[in-house]
Amino acid sequence: MKVLAAARLRIALPLLALAAGLVWVALRAGPMAPVSVQTATAQARLLAPALSGSGELDVRKRERVGSRVPGRVLGVHVDVGDVVVGGQLLLELDPVDLHAKVQAQQGAAQRVQEQIALAQAQQRQAEARQTFAQAKRTRYRLLSERALVSTEALEEVEQAAQVAAADLDVARAQLGQADAELQRARAELAALEAQREDLRIRAARAGQVLARRVDPGSTVQLGQTLLELADPADRIVLARFDQRAAAALAVGDVVEVRARSLGSFLQGRVERIELVADAITEERQARISLPLDVDLPLGERVELQVATQATPVEVAVPASALVVDAGRTGVWLVEDGRARFAVVESGLRSADGWIEIRSGLEPGASVVSYRPRPLREGQTLDVREEPLP
Is the model's pLDDT at 66 over the cut of 80? Predict the structure, then answer.
């Protein structure tokens, strides 16, 4: 029996040692072991929100050169990229039927002048008849006073004088109408003559050709855009920011602009913030002014970083403390050496890695800022003072 007991003891001792080792491993290195974490204290802080966006280079104002008359392009004297001065000839057009219209209008004006000459002659005749009728009426009135003519004869003379006066009024009206028609014909002729100058399109001011829409031989319509010009030094950035973060954006903010063709940042400023956000992309648009000596191609994509003003907040934690657990956004608190999850509402995020907590957390709370693996409710924590690798 003693031999059997000794044999059993020899077998049991290694098993007990193995079990003790397994328990030690489970408590120290297994799933039941405390998780080593780093903590931070929720605190009041000044946060300068980190605001980034993107955009492309453009110009503040484009001048679209259009055609005032329909026609065919005879020649284009500039190309994309050319710098022009005010008054420089840009292109020439050949009108579709301008010459025929000018000749027709000249003929119409000549016919009106002939009508005026006829109306003037008719007016002179009417004036002569009226003068004769008035003189005859005066004479008959004197004769009637002396009873040398009958009353009927005087009435006929009076009526003839009235008819002569009416004929003169008609002649004068016809002459006035002809004069007005001549003025209208001359105005239309002057407008057609002015269109000849419109066929030679010149630059209104100095600028650079951004786009060329036509070539020699192209047919153009009234108002069609032929060229686009702009001041080459008047470059801006058409920027887009996430509309939630754009609440911190203000006119005058300094913006770091990084063009993909450059290895360094340019400094610009927020010139204007658009009032209407894009409902599809949920972005807010803004215009960023740039230094006058910027020499970058229009349309180039750029990345933006905005240095916004610092805002005091009551509760802030490191951004690394904010986690999503089972669809809930919150932080892990350290309470009596164990983990407890607290749902919070976050706000501003700063460039130095801190984030505002608007609700769900009190100042002074200890939150987990680093954890090597996901935590679970009530899990034992091993809090370390030094940052973990």
Answer: yes
